[in-house]
Amino acid sequence: VDVTFSTGWQVPLVDAMDYGITITTQLVGDGVPANDTLVDTMSSMCLWIEDVAPVLIVWPEDTVYCSSSGDPTAKVTNLGQISATFDVVFSIDTSGVNLYEDTVNVVDLAPAETTDAVFGSWTVPDVDGINYDLTVWTMLPGDVDMSNDTLGGASWGMCLPWEDVYPSWVVWPGDTVLCDSSDTVRVKVVNAGGLDASFDVVIQIDTNMTVIWSDTATVTNLLPGDSADAVFDEWTVPDLDSTTYGITSWTLLASDSLPANDTLVTSTFGYCFRVHDVGILGRVAPPDTVLCEQIYSVMVDVMNYGDFLEDFDVICTIEDTGGITIHQDTMIVLGLDPDSSRTATFASSWTVPNVDSTHYSVTFYSELAGDFNATNDTVSDSIFGYCELVVVRDVGPVIILNPPDTVFCDSTVVVSAWVKNFGTEQEFFNVECIMDTTLPVYADTQAVLELDPGDSVIVNFLNWPVPGADSINYTMTVTTLLAADTIYSNDTLAKPVFGYCALIHDCGIDSIDAPPDTVAIDSTYTPRVSVHNWGDYAETFDIICTIDGYDDTVQVVDLLPGVSTDIPFAPWSTSMPGSYLMSVVIELTDDGNAENDTASKTIEAVTGIYDQYVLPRVPLESGLLQNAPNPLSVYTHIYYQVAASGEASLNVYDLVGRLVKVLFEGFVEPGYYSARWEGDDETGNPVPSGIYIYKLRIGKEEASKKLVVVR
User: Residues of the signal sequence (predicted)?
Assistant: First the structure.
């Protein structure tokens, strides 16, 4: 026999230690003591990796307001295998001048855990248009990977009040939604300007570029720096398995100073959890009280909880108080639709034995091959047989109608049950419903008024918000509370309910950020893409980039759920003009949504001299292309095309609209052009790090884009 000792043994934190193990049996009068002792040895081994890193700068945000104050905050995580105690340093500087530095100590951060490192308060200087460089680094002796110990960021200081609102993220639907589920659609919007703002927010949901749902909500008096939920009507997810829905939301503020951030584009993945599951709802007949030598029909309500049309057997057995089967019958239920119930009537009626004041056990159970949930297959209860008419006070629950046997985390479900008056008197009584695991998580009581003998009624309880814990077994209990009830055995009905949270693997490509759509031959570009983890697990995967003969593979390591990252590939260039197809593919094992794993675009390589490309065709329309490289470190090229001759200008501005650099002014003919900017202002001085706007004006037409300067 295996013997398990009651006290566990904590292995000491000592590496390469040999331990002796001695086990002895102690039996008084043992006839063979020579085999009473067993001796063995074992060795301990400690394999620890120490690695901590900053992963996100929480505050300061991208834009801060002059004279405002806050606590610089950064999220740090323990990527190692043992708890770690370490210092974290937060530094703020501008143009190489340090303005702020503070250190905090993080104590006993467990492996795989993340915490906020909160530093002392910092007040933003009262200087307009300043770019602040943010740096956070961890200091852990023995850190095995120092490449991730430092995290940089930038924040823009702004004093002039301006108007800027934008959608930040879609609250619901999330990255994954279940077929036939519904909720109010909500988008988080932010007032990044300096004035109160009232504006409309539009959202539309599409599949395969066809809009299937849209709505508009109004946000009123949103204060500067605040955020709010724009709440739309409910959307019900279509019953289409493994479908990606595009979500586009945009703000409508006529005087918005920064329209480039007014639109948010994301997606959600719809899937259907389909099972075979039938069960017994409850006994319909015979009633709870029967008369001797009377003939009663045998009927039961059955339910198809699953997702398929089902044929299955239902068996009924009736036993006396000695456990002897006195009646048994089987019937076949044919073609029961999903989410449908039916009253099944057996072919054989039951004649009650001539035995006064006795109880009978009635059991119904369903038989379906491959049934997902056996807990709802059987219902067994008691009925009372008597041989002379008496006054009976008896009510009880017959069927638990809702919720279904499986519910999804964080959903809100209907709770209802069917109760019946089995007695001979009209009754007034309460009905109680409780959901519990080890402790109650839900309770409600409703009153039933004037229920006549033999009648039944559906009792609707308050809706139940399902907790967000995965794989939890709940017990739902419905109890009738009638003080004068003479048959307590049928007062309570219970069923199990399983709480389930759907978790998936899903990483995809957000955007191709470089090279631009048009490139110059004999120039070198760094292909870059943005990838996002829409799933529920930290993921490590390969991402492959190909451009007609060029290919490179980069491994992304431990990308956290909900996080995006920028991926650079090896430099690429071409010496031949023409069209090139750039394709990017993610390779993730068990990816739950393959539709976002690939992205591609066509790159036009052109030839010519500085500022003008000589191409065999005239552009069909004027336009402004994304600069490259972006961010600008030493220099960048800004590409644009002109469809008709006329006066044109290309200028660079800061975020508050001040002119920084004139790149071109003059008359242009139709064609393709580029301008080189080395990150200097009109006086030739280098501009500070930050975000800048470059604007092309051709006649009455205007176009603008953002670029980033990183020093």
Answer: none
